[in-house]
Amino acid sequence: MRQVPLAFGPEPVLRFDTFLPGGNAQWEQVLMALLSPSPSMPLYLWGPPGSGKTHLLQAAVSQAQSFGLRTMKFDLTTSTPWEYDEDARLLLLDDCDRYDADRQHEAFRMFIEATIAGVPIIAGGRLPPVDLPVRDDLRTRLAWGLVYRLVPPTDEQVCALLRRDATRRGIPLSDEVLACLLGHGERDLTHLMDLLGRLDRYALATKRPVTLPLLRQMLAEPDLHTI
After folding, report:
1. Which GO terms describe its cellular component (predicted)?
2. Tag placement on the chain: N or C end, fewer CB within 10 Å?
3. What's this model's pTM, rounded to 2 decimal places?
């Protein structure tokens, strides 16, 4: 019988200081805007998958909550209708490029209520505001503040980040295991970090060290990816 590991141990830490800036030339300006969001200047981050939008939005949530502030965060996983929290001091809208009609309506309503209440707004999507396939009034509001493009990290930077997280987890990550991780599916950093986390849990469950055969065995057993 395979051991099922308890939900202890390190979890991915989504903070500003764990973000990999990569080739983002405007990183200092982006970080300043994230650290001190302005109620009068919405912030919109855009870039392809793996560029770190969700990481930075979640880091903003973590920072606000560390100060004892309530936040509201809505994305594709949030069912409608959305509920506005009058006690919240930060509004975050993720996946803006993929909102259906209902979510576009809710996002516009959240945007208006937050603006009236003087609550800072941080949003993210894969496309720049001008190209967003959303209603005009929402597109206009997402574009009226600060807009920054995020650039995904290079393969070398991704490798360095995976090795750093593996060290944090106590996993000896060989070159062969790392190459297999990079070659499995899309080069999305969130996907790769999740895969590394599953590998860590799989090694605990099987009581075996992290090796290339173990990784291949895990990938061949999709039913066990949720352990």
Report:
1. plasma membrane
2. N
3. 0.78
